[in-house]
Design a protein that fits this description.
Length: 90
């Protein structure tokens, strides 16, 4: 059995992609514009939130989490396999 460095880099790439997606979605949520209803006084109204966009960004956060976890599992499995190969060869 041959454990390629590509397996480790694939796992690391998945983790990096997950972190980038997480940062992007978190930034989009933080910059969520808020608007006030024009007919009511500004002090009496709560900000209106674009729920569709917020939901999409929250789903992206969950997807980023899963991608990072998947990358970690790939690296962990490759490491275990490599350890098993070393034990067999020794």
């Amino acid at each position: 059995m041959h454990i390629s460095a590509n397996v480790f880099s694939a796992g690391l790439s998945a983790i990096n992609s997950g972190q980038e997606q997480l940062a992007s979605a978190a930034q989009a949520i933080a910059q969520q514009p808020s608007s006030h209803a024009a007919s009511a006084p500004a002090a009496a109204t709560a900000p209106m939130i674009d729920m569709a966009n917020l939901t999409e960004q929250l789903l992206m956060l969950e997807q980023a989490k899963q991608m990072s976890e998947l990358g970690a599992r790939v690296i962990s499995t490759a490491e275990e396999s490599l350890g098993t190969l070393i034990d067999i060869q020794a």
